[in-house]
Amino acid sequence: MKRSDRVTVTAARAGDPSARALSWPEDLRGSVVVVKFGGNAMVDPGLQLTFAQDVVELWHAGLRPVVVHGGGPQISAMLDRLGLETRFEAGLRVTTPETMDVVRMVLTGRVQRELVGHINAHGPFAVGLTGEDAHTMTAVRRPARVDGRAVDIGLVGDVVDVNPAMVRALLEQDHIPVVSPVARGADGQVYNVNADLAAAALAVSLDAERLVMLTDVEGLYADWPRSTEVIGHLTARELDGLLPGLASGMLPKMEGCLRAVRGGVRKAHVVDGRVPHAVLRSVLAGTSPGTTVVPDAVTTS
Description:
Elements: E1 8-10, E2 21-23, E3 32-37, H1 45-60, E4 64-69, H2 72-81, E5 88-89, E6 92-93, H3 97-120, E7 126-130, E8 137-141, E9 144-146, E10 149-151, E11 156-162, H4 165-172, E12 176-180, E13 182-184, E14 190-193, H5 195-205, E15 210-215, E16 233-235, H6 236-242, H7 251-262, E17 267-272, H8 278-285, E18 291-294
Helix pairs in contact: 2-3, 5-7
């Protein structure tokens, strides 16, 4: 299947007949866009379908999408069914060896397969893999601190090396890689990697133009919980100053955005995944309806 030569798409084709035609920025054609799939979009069947449509639209327009998915709600539900504890520290899931077994099973055996299926309903596009495959991601145990004290969060990993060769090969073959954030360490241990941080590491290694993170809020709030005003734009330096005071749920996302733009990604967007076609609109418009993070040298949207 060959890509279309067109540079405009309509959201109506992607299931939104009320939307007007949107023009693709020419300078994005051929660029890698890493999209982190998470939040409400993961558990709402309608949003799952529109997300898959958005990703295929990116492909048709000549971009090179890579999807990194989470699976928090599904993992928590399975742990509950099995009578295992669900606990978070510093915004990260505490991962015991028993929890790690569930994480691998749910991410690669359920969430990834469903997402690949939704994308491939539109053609032979998506191929699933994990950070373990071809040593795509290597991780080390991640330390964590809460209120200044060290806490043990178990088999949670931080990506220290990315070998993007497999992902690049899939992109060259016009496939859409769908990556589960599980990585092996040099010690042979398998680690649960936060999907936001995995997406950021992969975006840097692929020299991605954009990183788009779906979440279940409107963006980064300026003064949560006292205000729901969303910060539209931040430089890396501004975000770095805010990071220590962020709520635990937003911390990995914004840390991932900061790592991405400091690693060479031109823009990182945090968008509301509850809004249909949020990915399409954030990339097409050039500015996110949520929060956009840019490198320090960039001050415009």
